[in-house]
Batch of 2 targets.
Target 1
Amino acid sequence: MSRAAALAIVLAALSSVSADSVRPVKVTKEAVEDEGGFRFRLSEGTDESALSPRARPAAGVPLDDAATKRVLDRLPAWSAPDDEHPLALRESSLPIPRPGRTVQEPFPPPSEVGRPAAPDRGEAGPLRVLRRAPGGDVPLAPSLSATFSQPMVAVTGHEDPGREARPVRLAPEPPGRWRWVGTKTLLFEPAGRFPMATDYRAEVPAGTRSAVEDGRALAQAVIWTFTTPAPTVTAASPKGGPARREPLLFAAFDQRIDPEAVAKRLRLRVGATSFPVRLATGEEVEADAAVKSMAAAAAAGRWLAFRPTETLPAGAEVTVVVPAGTPSAEGPKTTATEQSWSFHTFGPLRVSGRRCGWNDQCPPLSPWQIELSNPIDPKAFRKEMVRVEPELPGLKVQVFGPNLTISGASRGRTTYTVTLAAGLPDIFGQTLGQPATVSFTVGAAPESLFAPGGRSWSSTPPPARVSRSTA
């Protein structure tokens, strides 16, 4: 029997047997050789562990071609699978776009050299100055410009035309560079900027002519002026206070100054008494962290540090006066008005105020604050210098400048007495000298209404709780 016939018989038998009833049979090489071919055996499925040894089956008889044909004729007709599809191809490319009309012009078009455009001749009539800048009082003047109504130079003549050929006269003229911007605008750029504290005058003389052959000259001179300001104080220290009685002072300006010339005019005024000052040394500036930082931030040559030649009174209001007539190192103008700032020197260390809560309401657990007249020395301060009666659980004391902040588990409807030790120090080397007491009356805890948890999307919100303090 051929291999194809055997396979057909197996398929026919399998088509009438369920999968659950098929039991796999082990086929060895020896069995194949003994039988003389490859054979199958089908039976009802049974647990192999329950099978008992069976007798050897009888030898089969191969089917002849006629018998095989009769078996194959019983099989259903063969049909091609229904999952076959033609090969999927991508969509075809779009057609080449076509113009709406046919253009008959050649490409590239033939080159045609036309006549050059006529040069800009500007306005007809006599020459005029259309714009000029700067003018009047200006805080800063980076450049000077003048624009004319007609071309003044050739297109290629943008370099400095020389002093005699310039249409603008400037006095005083600082170091800088003149150049043309286009053919109508003359620009002067000083080295950096125009010096401060100076009055400037610019003039375009009458009779100045343009570069246009038939242009008419400027009918009358055009004159304008501008002014840069005298020195102005931009930063100063100390301010407010308290400050030491021999303080190191600092002043910065908006322009270069001569420190010696400015220091000769400065005065410290306490009431009707004036105290002269001297320039601080480099060592004094290096030793003061605040002044050293401000000097580093200021431009070179625009600041001075100074101090009084004698000790200032204690607890006094001091006014630093930069008088009118203070000179600049950039120009001849001096200040027209007085400039000043104030600070006060330190006095004896004492308690100057107290606070608790908002609007002096003092609920339980809120911190207390004691204010002193001078900043407290944080390095020399010790927590033991503050005593609270009755005892305040969780006592914590913090130092912020002239303020002491005391916090802890304070009880409602209780008056606490805070005692500051006589040795409590300030940054000027002083102490209180004697104990100081401050009282704080803690009121009742306020009623509160709150709902625990966050926003809920439930139609039935969680119940709210009302807390009423009895402290």
Target 2
Amino acid sequence: MKGTFYWSVRRELWEHRSVWLAPLAVAAFVLVAFTYGLSRSAREIAATLSALPPGKQQHLVTMPFGLAASVILLTGFVVAAFYCVEALNTERRDRSILFWKSMPVSDLTTVLAKALVPVAVIPLVAYAIALATQAMVFTVSAVVLKALGADIGALWAKLPMTSMTLALAYGVAVHALWFAPLFALLLLASVAIRRPLPWVVVSVIALQLLEKIAFGTNYSGAFVKYRVMGAMTEAFRTDALREPVVQLSQLDPARFFTSPGLWLGLVAAAVFLSIAVRLRRLREPLS
């Protein structure tokens, strides 16, 4: 079972190279843009930095690192969503489902392997790429500022690298757990519907419009917003959302892991995946 599951996950990575290519491409773009911007305004930044109070200095120094990581991780989660939409639908369109069903791999193993990719593999890949990008951002900053005669030691002192790295890992983990029911629902739609992406988008919009017309309320819209943005409000302290998360004091794991939204979401994810397993067992190739 373990070997079968491992190779099922490996197969997903072989067939879906966007899992790592998309975050890598975004990381390259971020690095080029940062290098270009720094080369044009390094003197102004150095002069402005020295005139600011210590708190503002740290904010200015850490902002590029937080922005680079956020863009890469957001790309990873978008890639994960599109992966889920296509994961079980593609094998029915290209008729490869017949081949895979002839192999000694159960539907449960296949669905769980596909679920692991957006919940664990893609976030880990994006996290590793984000860390590498941050390291390169620091290297570029050090080289440029050193050429201008700036004190690199002072720059390093303003970067709480250990707490930034741990906070980034925490953010990746809580978002992966929080998004688990969304990924599971998209996987269910992937196996249940011929064209899952339009169906999901239209259904969400239609539900909100019908509720607004019939009752004049927006509970469904608030729920969708909470399910998409709730990890930030549940897993971090309120004041942490106003500035880059660079200190461990900005994290609130106790509130996150006691949040009903987290555990109800994980239960919903388990239900969606169990239905997806049953449906895959019954599904045939699309004609």
